[in-house]
User: Fold these one by one.
Assistant:
Number 1:
Amino acid sequence: MTKTARQIGAVLLGAGFGRRFGSDKRLALLGDHTVAETTAATYAEAFKTVRIVLRTEDHALIKRLDRFGEIVLTDQAHRGMGLTLAAGFADVAWEWGFVGLLDMPFIAPLTLQHLQERARNSEQQIIRPRLKRSLRADHKAPHGHPMGFHRCLFHDLQALTGDEGARSVVQANPERIEDIDLSDTGIVQDIDRPEDLPAS
């Protein structure tokens, strides 16, 4: 097995349109940096390899984000998240790939490192973070991002279409999932509307 194949990488999906925000939420300021830069920097700190999927016309974002990882461009974003995700996993040779969202800037680097460590030692092929809300196991607790996929499922991700994202792959493989309980609310906290940004 090559060194590249043993790696754990991350694919950040950032080609959506975010119409409910009213403007490009990826460029909205979060402190001194944009939402997109904050998220990308966190993933770049935790992962050795990061791929960031953007639209071909995202010239401003490309300039801001290329220092954090490899930029993957798609002109198919209008056809759904499935094709965006497929573009992100095209030609990757990692052992595991984690799927994150560019509008989720609040996740902690330590959380990302913990998920990678669990993947290295897991006997399953899907790592799914779950928000821990109590000391007891809560199977109804919300799941979040990033989700990890073993390379044996990359072909399924590369074949995605439509707007379901990786949901269909997860639903087709319930016996391959390891749920990881975490107390980091950043795994479920995204930027959907301007009021989701912290008050300055």
Number 2:
Amino acid sequence: MSRTGNDRVGDIDLRLLRAAVEATGEAILITTADLDEPGPVIVYANPAFTKLSGYDAAEVVGRSPRFLQGPATDRAALDRTRAALKAGEAFQGEALNYRKDGTTYQVEWLITPVRDAGGRITNWVSAQRDVTDRRAFEDRQALMVRELHHRVKNTLATVQAVLNATMRSSVTMAEFSKAFGGRILSLARTHALITEDEAQVASFEGLLRAELDAYDEGGRITLDGPRLKLPSDLAVPVSMALHELTTNALRHGALGHPGGMVVVTWRIEDDPSGPWLAWTWNEHDGPPPTLPTREGFGTRLLNKILTAQVSAEVDIDFDADGLRIHVRLPLGRR
């Protein structure tokens, strides 16, 4: 640009340029050209930068932008920035900076050189924006995609196991179709509950209600326990167990009898290894339970899948007035 007056660059008044820079929402820093310590030195910071960093302009002018960095700042990102600037190139990148109050923010910057008539770099101009929320969202999305891949893989394995077990325990094609269809629908309901929650978890009570609410006529179903969220790797096997217990109660237990009732209670137990979920499935006022003549799919699921997949402890009692199932499973390690 050609200089046409002390306060003009080309046809633009420098006061207008300054007003534009100070009005923009982008944080702007202008530094000296020297890259080696103690440089570069900040010579100008606009109001958007002071708002972003918490520092007044007087607190930053004369200091190197390095003072904004801290222990969690990625040194590799800074090295890439320095390498580009040393080559005289503009550079766009990100880094973690520290505000005056000690909090951190992820900053995206575009640093460009300012050259004199001879091509020598005299200053660097850095336009910056806070991308903390965007980066957190992107990281969350990436995590959810990884969890989804993991869940899909586990689900396909679960479907295969359910298919094989249903085929072994079914006598007729109609019996197979009904049993397998019910189990897949239960699995689908569970995944719907998990997917609807941003944290990809399902409440234990929600899993119970998904299976039992349809049969809660006249107070036949009682649920009692604290609010509890289960991650997907626990929710899926637990929901399958609840589906089998519900199906069994309809065919052979309390829900197949007009006066039968189901009471499910649960609590969180402290353990040196971490919290455990303890829950009891209690059927009463139905037909007297009979010991199975062979191990059905539901029993295999309770005794093997729950035990193998979630390290559960399962105790099955065929009491005189109904079935009692006691389950304990670890919720996580401290």
Number 3:
Amino acid sequence: MRVIFLGTGTSRGIPTVGCDCKVCSSPNPKNKRLRSSILIESEVNIVIDTSVDFRTQMLQHNVKHVDAVLYTHAHVDHILGLDDIYPFNLWSRKTTRLYASPATLKELKITFRHLFKGEFQSGVPCVELIPIEGNVRIADLEFEPVEVLHGDLPVLGFRVGRFAYVTDVSFIPEKSLGQLEGLDYLVLDGLRYESHPKHFSLSEAAEMAQKLGAKQTFLIHMNHDVDHDEGNAFLPESVRLAYDGQILEMD
């Protein structure tokens, strides 16, 4: 299994429009962050969240097919790339399966209501909505949903084997903590140095990572307060900032 970080930035991306701060103007490519999303490659290609930058991400990594999408929640930076699923339908002549909580599927139907009119339309994605109500088996991979809170909004993280992806989180319930034990790799939200009501700060994310005991934790969803090298110097060795294009290889 291979995991590619398609984007590691917060909802506005880095550089942020109109900003000339140290990070936004940095020449370090690891400070260039598209909106957060990953691609999991195995027997199939699975994307977690079709970010606002989905088209750019697919082109950057020369992705030729996407077999399924798992959604964490329905905030716009995580779903608005859905319309760019269409070329994959065109080349594969297959429907793309979208997995999400019933609440997120409801929001997708509202935001992308043109996809669900029940009539044929050319040039729009052909998708199948599948509610997540337990573990999800896709080809050789089994995804275990992990419910966390983003402020007061329930969000799904996903565990597959000894890897887990948890974005947009400010609180992890006790039951979900148990689902995140024994990991080799944990991907976790870490927005900025200061606390935030809906996201872990870098120090809160590092504390949670050490509590869970993953061998290696990678932080995502960083804003422009966080320089890549300075952030890594601030964090313990077992917790690193992820960067766009980073690849994890695992059994």
